[in-house]
Amino acid sequence: MITVLFADDHEMVRIGVSAYLSAQPDIEVIAEADDGEAAIGMALEHRPDIILMDLVMERMDGIEATKQIITQWPEAKIIIVTSFLDDEKVYPALEAGATSYMLKTSKAEEIAKAIRSTYEGQSILEPEVTGKIMTKMRSPHVEDLHDQLTGREKEILLLMAEGKTNQEISEQLFIALKTVKVHVSNILGKLEVSDRTQAVIYAFKHNLVN
């Protein structure tokens, strides 16, 4: 059985999620906490396999609770389950030691799956969180990378952001398809990204497009 501590200040959320998890053949909710301070005490007392941690709670939030639990028990596996996806919540939670980050909009079965995966040593992150981390962890000179692009490359990057294919870009700019492919390859290299999607994310992140 995978033992779980669930910390959340909304009683109905705790009741609903705990009931679903406890109905699983391999998961058992052994304790519940309604704030960060209680979560710390229960985590150190019960040493559950997984801790589900809400972020916004009274007396002490989930970030501080996570930090204190990890400080006293480095092996703890904590899954953040929250409604917040803003930077001031995501990064501090992960830096505090959280293993996975899920949104409360996730289905109950997705949370159960995350519990099993985290228990097996994986880190489960919402796609939006992964995108934020990719952007944050890029090299220090990332802000200046797009300055290396030529005028034509910037023009093509904007069309890529509009969802244009290489063929459509070729037809719109009246240049050979082979030339477009060379420009796209140069764009990826200069922005230090591996594919078109990351290039488009970069463009939006740095306000190169609306």
TrEMBL record:
Q: Where in the cell is it found?
A: Cytoplasm
Q: Where is the HTH luxR-type domain?
A: 142-207
Recorded superkingdom: Bacteria
- Record's keyword terms, sorted: DNA-binding, Phosphoprotein, Transcription, Transcription regulation
Chief place where the protein resides? cytoplasm
Residue positions, PTM 4-aspartylphosphate: 54
Supply the SMART domains for this chain.
Answer: HTH_LUXR (SM00421), REC (SM00448)
- What Gene3D superfamilies does the annotation carry? 3.40.50.2300
In its UniProt record, a GO molecular function of this protein is: DNA binding
Official protein name in the record = DNA-binding response regulator
SUPFAM superfamilies according to UniProt = C-terminal effector domain of the bipartite response regulators, CheY-like
Residues of the Response regulatory domain: 3-119
Q: List the GO terms this entry assigns under cellular component, sorted alphabetically.
A: cytoplasm
GO BP term, pick one: phosphorelay signal transduction system
InterPro entries referenced in this protein's UniProt entry, alphabetically: CheY-like_superfamily, NreC/VraR/RcsB-like_REC, Sig_transdc_resp-reg_C-effctor, Sig_transdc_resp-reg_receiver, Tscrpt_reg_LuxR_C, WalR-like
* PANTHER family documented for this protein: TRANSCRIPTIONAL REGULATORY PROTEIN YDFI, TWO-COMPONENT RESPONSE REGULATOR
